[in-house]
Amino acid sequence: xxTLTNPEVDExxxxxxxxxxxxxxxxxxxxLMSYVVRVFREYFGFSHDIxxxxxxxxxxxxxxxxxxxxxxQMELHAQAMHDYGLWATVRKAPQ
Length: 95
Description:
This protein is an alpha+beta fold. It has 3 helices and 3 strands; from the N terminus they run βααβαβ. It has helices at residues 33-44, 48-61, 71-83, and strands spanning 21-26, 63-69, 87-92. The longest helix is centred in the middle third of the chain and has 14 residues, at 48-61. The chain starts with 20 loop residues before the first strand and ends with a strand.
């Protein structure tokens, strides 16, 4: 049996595990709390209670994690939040 190797590949390179990412919504002085609840319900499909809880985290703690998953999806969520006029970022989930 013959093993094919590629001399151009550095075997010391390690592929990073598929680390979850998060979409974080940040507090701002512009949007009403009722509007943030509506956005969370409309976009993420949260129940009224969950949307209100996340909005209160944003209001009291300055931010809230609203989604977790693959980086590409979290970037789409952050862009959607921007389209709604909310301030959002993407970050690696703490391990």
